[in-house]
Write a structure and sequence with these properties.
By secondary structure, the protein is mainly alpha-helical. It has four helices and no strands. It has helices spanning 2-14, 25-41, 56-62, 66-72. The chain is globular and about 40 Å long.
Length: 73
């Protein structure tokens, strides 16, 4: 359930469709940071077949998953 809550809380900040509603600086910074981290980990072979490497939105929500977090360490 927490995974889905995180999706709802972060979808606006991570969305590519925010032209009509400009992001405040803090959300822009969050988006840049999450995209940067995702870019760094998405092709890691240890994370192959993990839901968290599908896209930045799934990556963010999967941070609630203790198994995924252990693999990130």
């Amino acid at each position: 359930m927490l995974h889905e809550v995180i999706h709802e809380l972060t979808i606006y900040a991570l969305s590519d469709q925010t032209i009509e509603w400009p992001l405040p600086k803090t959300l822009k910074d969050f988006r840049v940071e999450m995209n940067s981290i995702f870019k760094d980990i998405k092709d890691n072979p240890l994370l192959k077949n993990e839901r968290g490497v599908l896209d930045v939105k799934e990556f963010t929500a999967e941070l609630t998953n203790p198994v995924f977090r252990r693999k990130l360490k």
